[in-house]
Design brief:
This protein has 71 residues and is mainly alpha-helical. Helix content is 92%, strand content 0%.
């Protein structure tokens, strides 16, 4: 967000071509969106792994409890 803010500020202050400025802002926005999507995907993978480990631990504990109960 800061990058986009600075980009807008620099574009507003400079006498550059509006088309070039718009293209740069679009590229920055795409970069930012890709970065956010990557972080969200990585977070989803981490959550799935954690959920899988928690379920495996739960099954192991239940199996152990059932095994001890039979003895």
């Amino acid at each position: 967000m800061m990058v986009c803010s600075f980009a807008v500020a620099f574009v507003a202050c400079g006498g550059k071509d509006k088309a070039a400025a718009a293209e740069k802002m679009k590229a920055d926005s795409i970069k930012m969106a890709d970065s956010i999507a990557k972080v969200q995907a990585e977070a989803a993978v981490v959550k799935m792994k954690a959920d899988s480990v928690a379920k495996a631990d739960s099954v192991a504990a239940a199996t152990k409890a059932a095994s001890e109960k039979k003895k």
